[in-house]
Design goal:
binds zinc ion; 9 helices; globular; Metallo-beta-lactamase, Chain A
């Protein structure tokens, strides 16, 4: 299995996964040109895309889907509530034949996808666990918190792509209106650096190789501040591959 985060942050999110039997994108909030250019930095040419999984219907996660689907006949998997909202807000660009409403578990090729209900101020938001050939990857973003009862589902993954959105001090100092600060910090907002670290510390296991931190706020976070907090809380930090994703360029290509 291999993957790369093509874009991450409030201006657009997109991650590409390739398993031995499936090519999967999680979210597409960037232009098709950017998708192609950033995959090219890893010498990947996008062909035979099987599926696009949608975490939720916010623009930074879905804006690129119509142009992606105009080039690739991929199946789209999303919650029916998210689709309902998307359909009202903008043209979803999803042909009815490519539309799949998802419940708990489903397969793409031999890749098992488990959905996780996250907590966010959208119609419905999901995280995903991808498993194939004993390799497990957890992809969680845009959630105000994660209940402990979900920890067994996400524990001991080979790799985590995990939201670490804001530093509370930088957020409070920012010029954002107070209601927005409250929204971000609330239960239906985003995970702070500390919240992400406290969860990861519990679920990282023996086979975990690394974490890519995603959806860092450009205004209210820096990789530098996030790293200080993560190091302080995650005792496994030094022994793992830890990477901070970018808004404007692709992350490393991770091959498992
Ligand atoms: Zn987002
Ligand atoms: Zn969102």
């Amino acid at each position: 299995m291999k993957f790369t985060v093509l874009a991450s942050g409030s201006k657009g999110n997109c991650t590409y996964y390739e398993t031995p039997t499936a090519k999967i994108m999680i979210d597409c909030g960037i232009s098709y040109r950017q998708v192609v250019q950033r995959l090219a930095t890893h010498e990947i040419v996008l062909t035979d895309l099987d599926a696009v999984l949608v975490t939720h219907e916010h623009a930074d996660h879905v804006n690129g889907i119509p142009s992606l689907l105009s080039k690739h006949d991929a199946q789209v998997y999303l919650s029916s509530k998210a689709y309902g909202k998307m359909h009202v807000n903008q043209k979803s660009g999803i042909d009815i034949n490519n539309l799949n409403f998802i419940s708990e578990e489903f397969m793409i090729g031999n890749c098992k996808i488990t959905t996780i209900k996250t907590s966010h101020d959208s119609a419905e938001s999901l995280g995903f666990v991808l498993e194939e050939d004993g390799v497990k990857i957890v992809h969680i973003t845009d959630t105000g918190y994660l209940p402990q009862k979900l920890y067994p589902t996400i524990e001991n993954a080979d790799y985590y792509l995990f939201e670490s959105n804001y530093d509370p001090e930088l957020l409070l100092e920012s010029r954002r209106p107070f209601f927005l600060k409250q929204r971000i910090m609330g239960n239906q907002g985003h995970l702070s650096n500390e919240q992400a670290a406290l969860i990861l510390k519990e679920v990282i296991g023996k086979k975990t190789r690394g974490v890519i931190f995603i959806h860092l706020s450009e205004e209210c976070n820096t990789a530098f501040d996030a790293k200080i907090k993560h190091k302080e809380i995650i005792e496994q930090f030094e022994s793992l591959e830890m990477e901070y994703s970018f808004q404007h360029k692709a992350s490393s290509l991770i091959i498992l």
